[in-house]
Amino acid sequence: MPANDTSLMAHLLRRAGFGAQYGEVESRAAVGYEETVEELLNPEDHSHGMDLDLAERYFIEWNHHIRGVPEYHAWRMINSKSQLEEKMILFWHGILCISDSKLQSYPTENVQLEMFRRCGMGSFRDLLVEISKDPAMIYFLDNCLSHNGAINENYGRELLELFSLGVGMDGKFNYTEDDVKECSRAFTGWTIANSIPQQPYGRYAAQFVYDPADHDDGEKTFLGETGHFNGEDIIDIIVKQPATARFISRHMYNFFIADDVEVPSWMDTPPRDPETIKMLEEEYFRSGYNIRSMLRVLFNSDAFKEARFSKIKSPIETIIGTLRLVGDWTTPKPGLEFIFDEMKYMGQEILNPPSVEGWHTGREWIDGGTLAHRINFVADSVSDASFPGIQEIVKSLASEGPSLSPEGLIDGCLRLLGHYEMSEENRRMLVDQNSKGGAVRTDSDEFPARVGEALRMIVATKEYLYA
What CA–CA distance (Å, rounded) separates 262 from 225? Predict the structure, then answer.
């Protein structure tokens, strides 16, 4: 099998999921790239090890939805057979943001994440309708406080600024303050039912309610169109705007292809790759705003295939990818909260983005404190030969011959980690460091430790920060 086939497949599985052990990379490469893309876009196997109600029986401290939802979704990212679905939940969670620091209702937040799983690769129009009816979002952005004759502009403003259009494009504003007000009027009456007390049966998710008596049905003018608009009418106008196609395309590019400037700079900063953005915009309209169709174009594009190691891994991608590589957390056991806390210490806490703008990405993931946490977590994991994934790496390297040179050991580890590429300077440094022990017999007792040390050195390099 050509090395470039497995290298490309490893790239796809890192970006369209959370990575995979090398055996899965090889088996998928044998099936074919385009076939794997289709399987990721249309998974038949949605299994993920356990449902939330079963998880709460294993993890008693999660009972009554007091605290377990973020940890449970970390579990799903590790174990789900439909990896792209899980990756799309993370994608939308970073755009259509809510925060538990305000909501403090894990059952309601879980409903939103499950909605992303259900709708995240369908029509963007339908997704905007669903998020506008989502109880967590309604409460988080105060639409439950917006009434006929006394609007609250929070949701209307963020729907336009951060969820669909963006502030501006090509140096021009995409909407006006009057558009924000008219949009907010259209969503009056979209509210939530009274929350249900925790006792005696535990917390329940809040419910969406439409109150026609509280809806402003007057005439509105929005983005140049006039009518007695309700919320869905507003969304119908939003999704047909060229700015919306640009907004979604730039988010997809930044998340799946390569790090670009942050969202606040998009008005005055052109896309990093205008041709690919244009291709995604065209597919947005051609497909009737279908996210799955846009992803198909993206994953099959030359821009995606050639963008290996051009994105800094987020903390969640780092941790989940490491656990999938080493084969940990395939069965329930104590300590999942520690894994969740590690994400937080690295700067990305599920259900608690820093603001409604979501997380800034790329180089902003890295600073002195978070870098130390990142390297220590990954290095400790890959150097532990008790993990089944590391045992498979040792076994694969041992099958290459009775002994391995320092060069062979380093190059083999880079390949089995997913065809990572090193600068010649860093590769030579790794080889020189490993040469102190000379060649090593693959059937010796010291071989697993030498492999673990080689892996530990590789994951501490600058290159391993990238996916």
Answer: 31
The H-or-E segment that residue 226 falls in is strand 225-227
- Helices marked H in 32-150: 33-41, 52-58, 69-79, 83-93, 100-103, 106-119, 124-133, 135-140
CA dist 186 to 57, 101, 161, 189, 220, Å?
A: 43, 28, 16, 8, 8
Query: What is the pTM for the complete model shown?
Result: 0.95
Dist CA 389 CA 24 (whole Å): 11
What domains lie within the chain, and their CATH numbers?
A: 82-305 (no CATH), 388-465 (1.10.238)
What's the pLDDT tens digit per position in 50-95? 888 787 777 776 665 556 788 888 999 999 999 999 999 999 999 9
- pLDDT for res 67: 63
Decide the pairing of beta strands 172-173 and 168-169. antiparallel
Return the closest-CA partner of residue 327 out of 139, 79, 62.
Answer: 79
Q: 33-41 and 291-299 helices cross at what angle (nearest 10)?
A: 160
Rounded to whole angstroms, how far apart are CA atoms 129 and 378? 40
Question: In Å, what is the CA distance from 431 to each residue of 54, 210, 314, 394, 405?
Answer: 47, 65, 28, 18, 9
For residue 402, the tally of other CB atoms under 10 A from its CB is 10
